[in-house]
Amino acid sequence: MGKRLAMTLASLALVGGYAAADIYDVAPGILTRTTVTPLPAPPASGGPSPTFVPLPTAGAATVLSEPPPDAPEPRAAKLAERLKTALADPALGPSVGVSVRDAVTGTELYARDTATARVVASTQKILTAAAVTQVLDPTQVMTTKVVSPEPGELVLVAGGDTLLARGAGDPEVTAGHAGLGDLAAQVTARIARSGARSWRLRLDNTYAAGPGYPDTPAYPTGWNPADVAAGYTQSVAMLGFADQRPKPGKPSPSDPAGAVLAAFADMVRAALAKAGSEVEVTVSDTPKLRATPVPAAAAELGAVESAPYRDVLAEALDESDNALTENLARQAAVQAGEDGSFSGNAAFVTAQLRTLGFDLTGTTLTDTSGLARGQHSTVALLSAVTAKAVVGGLPGLDDALGRLPVAGLDGTLYDRFRTEPASQAAGLARAKTGTLTGISGLLGTTVDADDRQLIFVIVADQVPPSMGTLAARAALDRFVAALTACGCG
User: Any residues with CB less than 8 A from the CB of 398 and at least 6 apart, and which?
Assistant: First the structure.
């Protein structure tokens, strides 16, 4: 099978939330773009523009085919020669860490400054994904339910799902898989038949709430509040709407769970009124009530389930969603017996990686998403974790890596790799982006001209302010294209 037919590609997806900031670097504060000069002219291309494989129907799986058994492994010296020009691009700046590995054997074929501790931005999410997949069952789901501890009392119980649809759920998607409208319909039918004329509704928000709830911080201390207020990330919650995920200029509610509670009450009241029922539903919402767990024996009146954890993790990586990543890390940490604090969640990731046998020299984490200041890791660690997953050594993470954004097609790469010479990697490379002011990186896999699958990690952590993020990301794309176009076997 030719390399340009080596993948079955999923349907196009529009980027949202932090993905926009990750791509355009337009966020304020920590993400503010420096003055950018025009992009340097790319080097002349050595081949034609790629032909995109036709897209299948929505919901189709994205699967890498097995490489041909006789596909040659690149020769290290030839590979180094082919990458020399791309790595000399001034837009990358003076500090660039690079690792290229063979995806079949895990052998490192090229390494440059891999042990240096540096800020790796959102590529750090791969480390979190490795930890999360060791604890959370990838097939399990998050349940949002309503129970009745006693006659006339309704309790909406958060279960970790912040991707609820406002109306009916759609089983073919991840964001919006479970629908609050479906839950409201279930509950309305039950209370209409109950004979009770008045119901009090409250929220149980104790699931993975973190220590000291309800006084738990809404986001890690290293995050810039201006970024939250401007819509580049959001509060970390255990209940929320998919359509209220942040977008630049359109911030999420400061209280995502409260927004769901209010919407649920309105839905039930509207359904009762439409049915001609005179049943009254009132909302009681205080920090104390939210921090009061429902009795285990409370009667369940309705429930809806999220997509499996593996799909939610893929969504977090695909959209580079900081809050969703922190959500999953907290759930995993709490399940592992930790306290669920942001610092504790970061320590959980570190502990899991150490247990897995990775060398953490040069790695200090203060959050699990890569957004906070004061943390760093190494290209060596990112490369080692990715390689172990790709060869099957980290069950669960291999699935997430196999669903990373495709160059030029979806997620945080949907508008990249569109012009020559970068387009030589379009439809072939998959990667996780990482962008902060002065830092640009990519981590993922590609298929070279010999049909050999390769793993790459590249992080530039001193991007020149005179050139800026857009120039750096174009240089990164050209690096991946050079790797992809190399017939170095």
Answer: 389, 390, 392
Q: Which residues pair with 98 in a beta bridge?
A: 112, 458
Q: Which residues pair with 157 in a beta bridge?
A: 145, 204
Q: Is the distance from CB of 234 to CB of 162 less than 8 angstroms?
A: no
CA 357 from chain centre, in angstroms, equals: 24
Please give the share of the chain, as a percent, with pLDDT higher than 90: 80
pLDDT in tens, 199-218: 999 999 999 999 989 988 99
Burial class (CB in 10 A: 0-12, 13-18, 19+), 424: buried
Spatial contact of 256 and 324, defined as CB atoms under 8 Å apart = no
- Which residues share a beta bridge with 460? 96, 440
SS3 category, 433:
strand
The two beta strands, 96-102 and 453-460, are antiparallel
pTM (2 d.p.): 0.87
Task: State the pLDDT confidence band at 42, using cuts at 50, 70 and 90.
Answer: very low
Buried b (16+ CB within 10 A) or exposed e, 133-155: bbbbebeebbbbbbbbbeeebbb
8: how many CB neighbours lie within 10 A of its CB? Answer: 14
**Spatial CB neighbours of 124, under 8 Å, sequence gap ≥ 6:** 365, 368, 369, 370, 375, 377, 434
Distance CA 219, CA 211 (A): 13
φ, ψ at 98 (rounded to 5°): -140, 140
H or E element: which one contains 446? strand 439-447
Please give the backbone phi and psi of residue 412, each rounded to the nearest 5 degrees, phi first.
-75, 0
CA–CA distance, 142 with 175 (Å, rounded to integer): 13
Listed in order, strand segments (DSSP E) in 149-221 are 153-157, 198-204
Q: Over the stretch 428-482, which tens digit does the pLDDT of each residue have? A: 999 999 999 999 999 999 999 999 999 999 999 999 999 999 999 999 999 999 9
DSSP string, 185-229: HHHHHHHHHH--SEEEEEEE--TT--TTTTS--SS-TTS-HHHHH
Cα separation, 433 vs 123, in Å, equals: 6
Identify residue 114 by its one-letter amino acid code.
T
Question: Which residue in the block uniquely carries the two structure tokens 């939250």?
Answer: 228
- Alpha-carbon distance 313 to 315, whole Å? 5
- Residue 306 burial class via C-beta count within 10 angstroms: exposed 0-12, middle 13-18, buried 19 and up: buried
Tell me how far apart the alpha carbons of residues 436 and 372 are, in angstroms, rounded to a whole number: 10
Q: What is the CA radius of gyration of the chain?
A: 24
Cβ count within 10 A of residue 418:
16
